[in-house]
Design brief:
With 196 residues, the protein is mainly alpha-helical. It has 2 domains: 92 residues, RNA polymerase sigma factor, region 2, helix turn helix motif (Rna Polymerase Sigma Factor, Chain: A); 86 residues, Winged helix-like DNA-binding domain superfamily/Winged helix DNA-binding domain (Arc Repressor Mutant, subunit A, Orthogonal Bundle). The chain has 8 helices and no strands. Helix 1 packs across helix 2, helix 4 packs across helix 7 and helix 7 crosses helix 8. It is elongated, with a radius of gyration of 20 Å.
């Protein structure tokens, strides 16, 4: 009797998608890509700070994931596993050479010239955001990665530990140190009420 694979679509539970992909179902792997590529790309962008490099890192992450999928030990934690691969890919890319960062547009958002919030407050918010991004960029890459996984991706500490290959106490310590570093960098901007 021929065993057929269940159909995989956007409604298929994550664990079933992973199991189908592990058994060689290309459609299931495509579904994994659809579900997790945005998170992997955003995380890669946060680490590499370059859109083109993030796109390349995302592709490389999924190439490696395809090869390593049979060794995934905890299918329900596939997101943390993929982000761990993305972290390794991003760190390798940084180690192999600097990427040419495309500077962000320095113009004010269109909302600053439309009716609505006070343009000065919009400018101050943008300056504070720029100060935050600069402070985040100054953190050591491993510390920034852990903080981004927590704040931007909403991962629990144990998932971060898995993604980073760390112990739980180390995750808590590194995130604490990252927050302290950000706080030190941003206090001057917050105490004066504006970024300078």
């Amino acid at each position: 009797m021929l065993k057929t694979r269940p159909q995989v679509d956007a409604q298929t539970p994550e664990g079933a998608v992973v199991e189908s992909a592990r058994s060689g179902d290309a459609k299931a792997f495509s579904e994994l890509f659809t579900r997790f590529a945005p998170d992997v790309r955003r995380f890669s962008r946060d680490l590499l700070r370059d859109d083109a490099a993030a796109d390349e890192a995302t592709q490389e992450t999924f190439v490696r994931a395809h090869l390593l999928l049979p060794r995934l030990e905890q299918p329900p934690r596939v997101k943390a596993w993929l982000l761990g691969i993305a972290r390794n890919v991003a760190f390798e890319a940084r180690r192999l050479g600097p990427t040419v960062a495309v500077p962000d547009d320095d113009e004010l958002p269109i909302e600053a010239v439309l009716p609505g919030p006070d343009p000065l407050s919009v400018l101050m918010d943008k300056e504070l955001e720029d100060a935050f991004q600069a402070a985040l960029g100054e953190l050591p890459a491993h510390r920034r990665a852990a903080l981004v996984l927590r704040l931007d991706h909403g991962l629990a500490y144990d998932d971060i530990a898995e993604a980073m290959g760390w112990t739980l106490p180390m995750v808590k310590n590194e995130i604490h140190r990252a927050r302290l570093g950000l706080r030190r960098a941003l206090v001057p901007h917050l105490s004066t009420g504006r970024a300078s």
